[in-house]
Amino acid sequence: MFGIVRPCRHRLSESMRAEWMAHLCGLCLALRGDHGQFARAATNYDGLVISVLVEAQSPRAEGANAWRRTAGPCPLRGMRTASVARGEGARLAASVSLVLASAKMRDHVADGDGLLARRPVAAAARRVAAKWDRAGARTGSDLGFDTAVLVDAVERQAGVEALAGPGTSLLEITEPTETATAAAFGYTAVLAGRPANRAPLEEAGRLFGRLAHLLDAVEDLEEDAAGGAWNPVAVTGTDLAEVRRLCDDAVHGVRLALREVDFASKGQGRLAHVLLAHELGSAVDRAFGAAACGHGHGAEADGGVRHGADGWFGPPPVMPPPAP
């Protein structure tokens, strides 16, 4: 899994595919530029939504080129150059991605997943997580965004899960995730200078976080059962039909919230609308086994590029060395 918002390239126009890739690579390079090569492992499909939202709300007084720069060849793009997103949106996305990826890394250490069951590996992972926390906080501070709200939400998650059992509402368990993503989405309005957008974007972010948490649980249900791992759906005994209802309601809520957002122009808001108003529904279909795309597997918008971590709530993989 590489995040919940990963559209098939056949559903995007050529221009929107290029825009999608610009934000994905922009996030990756913002991580590298501010925090070093290894930080690129926190790149993920969901994090780029932050970059998309900032750009969609921001006036382009300096022209479209003010939002892009040409990046050099990269192994993950088949050694091609590319036009990539730059600026505060990409840096905010990097800050949020680092903090939440570090939290998930600590979660996997606590669970003793895979190689992390070995003490030396777990110790190294804890050091990386601490470094990413500090790095994300530095970038957030540069932008006026306090990542403490993200850290607090993540730290509360363990306590919430410890109290959960049969009959516990899934929404009690998803609340910390919802709080973190609401803060991140809402701050895009601040960076873009559109404070009136903050409330509806916080609502969209809250529901996005709910979906990320629930869909991750649904997709991991069988694997968690086989490995004896903690899973909110299994622990609460929630019927999958009810989980689907909660997910569908969240998608509908995101669409309603987006109607209240004032984008800089209709054209600038198109990608944000496609990702959040349409692709979230496809993500739900995919998680519950419905056909989200008839073009077969491996047809994501990036044409098969694998840039990194599996969403804000999954473990980062080992990245290949990037081009200079």
Structural class: mainly alpha
Task: Tell me how many strands there are.
Answer: 2
What's the CATH class label?
A: Mainly Alpha
Quaternary arrangement of the chains shown?
single chain
CATH homologous superfamily, by name? Farnesyl Diphosphate Synthase
Quickly give the CATH architecture: Orthogonal Bundle
Give the neighbour order of strands across the main sheet: 1-2
Number of H/I helices: 11
Q: How many domains in all? A: 1
Helix content: 55-70%
H-E order: HHEEHHHHHHHHH
Span between termini? 28 Å
CATH fold descriptor: Farnesyl Diphosphate Synthase
What is the topology?
Elements: H1 14-35, H2 48-57, E1 68-74, E2 80-85, H3 88-111, H4 119-142, H5 148-163, H6 170-191, H7 198-219, H8 221-227, H9 232-236, H10 240-258, H11 270-287
Antiparallel strand pairs: 1-2
Helix pairs in contact: 1-2, 1-3, 2-3, 2-6, 2-11, 3-4, 3-5, 5-6, 6-7, 7-10, 7-11, 10-11
Keywords for this entry:
Farnesyl Diphosphate Synthase, 324 residues, 2 strands, mainly alpha, two-stranded antiparallel ribbon, globular, 11 helices
